Amino acid sequence: MYRSTKTYGPDLGLSATFRQWRANSHCNQLHGYALGFKFIFEADELDERNWVVDFGSLKPLKEKLEKAFDHKTIVASDDPKLGAFQALEGMGLASLTIMDGVGCELFAKKAYQFAEQVLKDLGLSDRCRVVSAECFEHGANSAVYVG
């Protein structure tokens, strides 16, 4: 078994704002982070170059992360204030990503799904797998989704 990792750190600039409207803390208010993501890939056999995955081929993964998280206000589809956020977007004051829920755990799951799709699109999913995706807000907080 071989494993390799790909990390898109907070220096990439995936600056996202969100709130956990169900929280009984300050997390129910808008706050943001430069999110980072780490992926673990594995394969039973290496490719002809002796790689698990060609890191250069993962540009579509980076693009998917940027589209979903870069300078976005991420809102849960069941947020009772969703209409207010949509009004802000309509005024050009926010760019929304609406998800089933917010938080590092669900962001990690979404990133995992992005990575799975990229491997499939590249024709690599028969040889290479995504083991996990990690989303981190900063050095102290992260969540991992394992498929």
Question: What features would you describe in this structure?
Answer:
The protein is 26% helix and 35% strand. It has one domain (2-146): 2-Layer Sandwich (Tetrahydropterin Synthase, Chain A). The relative contact order is 0.20. The protein is built from 3 helices and 7 strands; from the N terminus they run βββαβαβαββ. Strands 1, 2, 3, 4, 5, 6 and 7 form a 7-stranded mixed beta sheet that branches. It has 147 residues and is an alpha/beta fold. Helix 1 packs antiparallel against helix 3. The longest helix has 18 residues, at 104-121.
Q: What structural category characterises the helix and strand content?
A: alpha/beta
Q: CATH topology, which one? A: Tetrahydropterin Synthase, Chain A
* Rg from Cα: 17 Å
CATH homolog superfamily: 6-pyruvoyl tetrahydropterin synthase/QueD
Work out the number of β strands.
7
> Beta-sheet strand percentage?
25-35%
Low-confidence stretches: none
Shape: elongated
Give helix and strand order, one letter per element, not per position.
EEEHEHEHEE
Largest sheet: 7 strands, mixed
Assigned CATH architecture: 2-Layer Sandwich
Number of domains: 1
Q: Give the % helix.
A: 25-40%
> Total helix count?
3
CATH class: Alpha Beta
Average pLDDT level: 95
